[in-house]
Design a protein that fits this description.
There is one protein chain. This protein has helices spanning about 75, 80-95, 125-130, 135-155, 205-210, 215-235, 245-250, 260, 265-275, 290-305, 330-340; strands spanning about 40-50, 50-60, 65-70, 105-110, 110-115, 120-125, 160, 170, 175-180, 185. It is α+β, with helices and mostly antiparallel strands and about 350 residues long. It folds into two domains: about 35-115, Phosphorylase Kinase, domain 1, CATH 3.30.200.20; about 125-305, Transferase(Phosphotransferase), domain 1. A five-stranded antiparallel beta sheet has the order 1-2-3-5-4. It has a three-stranded antiparallel beta sheet with strand order 6-8-9. It has a two-stranded antiparallel sheet with strand order 7-10. A hairpin with a 4-residue loop joins strand 8 (about 170) and strand 9. The termini are far apart.
Length: about 350
């Protein structure tokens, strides 16, 4: 997908100082205020949301290609929100890991406020899920293990994401996965009150978030469980007509077990998902490392079973006769006639 812009922020994996033929300004898009062009050459718009517009831009000082999030004017005019983004920058700078998108600077250009971040040529997990109806076990676990690695490093730095969702999981062209947008992250070391404020996306919000209670690493584990549910089942765990309805389901209801939706979801993945999304945080995996060990251990066990010479179990669909298998009989007969 060379040249296809990512609909969110990230970095290019090529040397950012090397001009790319595709890094030319797009004709017809509306660039941000002229003040921004003093520092950045804006190439094109790659996404927008409730907080602002994200552009692909080249830093005139360093030559690096970055994602530039320009906040909406009504947001940039609110000092308390600007403080929130300062917090985002400071927290994100604490996390240095190949599976976490880096945040560079918060810039002011007159009345315009912009945040520069890594840029990725690739796509978000949301875009990928929009193309397929559920991921294969191997593909899904390859993504999840990298997300877990990024979260583990963030948690080691006492940073909680609080808004993990497919839109914030980015997949580069070489398969590298990065967790992005720690915009609502809050350090558990700050001592700031963590109760009363409901922050996050209802479809991936933990019960404690929906109730305005304190959060910790297990909050991200819950959200990752919901992401895994959607990856392997092809649909969200909870649906509702309104955001409030979805948030209430996070507190009050249990989703349909994955294997009831798709019997080919491996049992160990279903077990991991259901443990991640326990309503009581004490019943979830207590760390990203615990979740990773549970998934990795099951994978290794399956590999050992085959290498030890034990015959692996055949999928159920291959052990029973189905109507469409009747087509194989005449084909086999024709094959025998041609052979003899």
């Amino acid at each position: 997908m060379k040249g296809q812009p990512l609909k969110t922020k990230g970095e290019t994996l090529a040397d950012p100082r090397t001009p790319d033929p595709g890094d030319q300004p797009t004709v017809g898009f509306m660039p941000p205020a002229a003040d921004v062009s003093y520092r950045y050459e804006v190439l094109n718009e790659v996404g927008s949301g409730g907080m602002g517009i994200v552009y692909k831009a080249r830093d005139r000082e360093t030559g690096a290609v970055v994602a530039l999030k320009v906040l909406h004017p009504e947001i940039a005019a609110q000092p308390q929100l600007i403080e929130r983004f300062k917090t985002e920058l400071l927290l994100a700078r604490k996390i240095t890991h190949k599976n976490v998108c880096r945040v560079y600077d918060l810039n002011r250009f007159g009345s315009v406020v912009a945040i520069s971040m890594e840029y990725i040529e690739g796509e978000s997990l949301r875009t990928l899920l929009g193309r397929v109806e559920g991921l294969s076990t191997r593909h899904g676990l390859k993504i999840i293990h990298q997300v877990i690695a990024g979260l583990a490093e963030a948690h080691a730095q006492s940073v909680i994401h609080r808004d993990l969702k497919p839109e914030n999981i980015l997949i580069a062209q070489d398969g590298t996965v990065k967790v992005a947008d720690f915009g609502v992250a809050r350090s558990v070391e700050t001592g700031a009150p963590q109760t009363g404020a409901i922050v996050g996306t209802p479809a991936y919000m933990s019960p404690e978030q929906a109730e305005g209670k304190s959060v910790d690493a297990r909050t991200d584990i819950y959200a990752l469980g919901l992401v895994m549910y959607e990856m392997f089942c092809g649909q969200p765990a909870f649906k509702g007509d309104t955001s409030i309805a979805v948030a209430l389901k996070q507190v009050q209801e249990l989703p349909t077990p994955p294997r009831q939706l798709d019997p080919y979801v491996p049992e160990f993945i279903e077990a991991a998902i259901l443990k991640c999304i326990e309503k009581n945080p004490a019943k979830r995996f207590q760390s990203a490392g615990e979740l990773d060990a549970a998934l990795t251990g099951k994978q290794e066990a399956a590999t050992v079973a085959v290498s030890d010479g034990r015959e692996p179990a055949m999928p159920v669909r291959l052990t029973r006769w189905e109507p469409r298998d009747g087509l194989l009989v005449p084909l086999a007969a024709v094959g025998l006639l041609l052979f003899f």
